[in-house]
Specification:
This protein is of the alpha+beta class. The protein is built from 9 helices and 4 strands, in the order βαβαββααααααα.
Length: 214
């Protein structure tokens, strides 16, 4: 059985997993779940993921994995080469902290269901944009000195790690919200380096089978 990734082209959480799969050199099938149309709430997808969120990865033995960080950690354990985590415990903690700033502190405040709830509460487009930019800038302000201190082409060192799997999709999302990277030169440099890497390029939203303008 081939790995099956339930994904949506521009959602950043499955984007992280696409990068991880590509870095590991793993083939997978792609099951598009249209978040804007609410397909994640269908009975068929709820049978896959009771939380009605993306991503979900069906493994080659039929197990369904959810939560992008858990999936990336599973990939690291089951397919340890090339490594997405450094060798020492201290360095691994730094990489995991970088990933968590994105996955736990930035993204949850800006994802689709939060945007929809803000709309339901009467927040207009301008207000939602200010909200999103606030949390992206807060997170990037914390990440920038970490990347500057530890990066050597990528967020930590000279090879992609779990941190880059999370950072690059968030940079893409920042662009959607009009967040400039000028205050974050170290992050911008990593994004430029990643754009030249085939694993990141293949994972880009525009390259996905369900990519579309809306």
């Amino acid at each position: 059985m081939t790995l099956l990734l339930h994904s949506y082209w521009r959602a950043t959480a499955p984007y992280r997993v696409r990068i991880g799969l590509n870095l590991k050199g793993l083939a997978y099938d792609y099951a598009p779940i249209h978040l804007v149309k609410g397909v994640q709430h269908s009975d068929a997808y709820k049978a896959v993921n009771r939380q009605e969120l993306l991503p979900a990865l069906t493994t080659d033995d039929g197990q369904v994995l959810t939560q992008s960080l858990a999936i990336l950690e599973w990939l690291e354990e089951v397919h340890p080469e090339p490594a997405l985590l450094p060798k020492t415990a201290g360095d691994r903690a730094v990489v995991r902290a970088m990933a968590a700033i994105v996955a736990c502190d930035i993204h949850p405040l800006n994802n689709l269901r939060i945007q929809q709830q803000l709309t339901a509460l009467g927040v207009d487009d301008a207000g939602r944009d200010l909200w999103s930019k606030r949390w992206i800038n807060d997170g990037f302000s914390a990440l920038e000195p970490m990347v500057a201190a530890h990066g050597a082409g990528f967020a930590f060192g000279d090879a992609p790690t779990l941190a880059d799997c999370c950072l690059i999709p968030q940079v893409y999302s920042a662009g959607r919200y009009g967040v400039a990277l000028d205050p974050y030169p170290a992050i911008a440099a990593v994004a430029a380096r990643a754009a030249e890497h085939p694993a990141f390029a293949a994972a880009h939203p525009d390259k996905q089978p369900d990519a579309h303008p809306a």
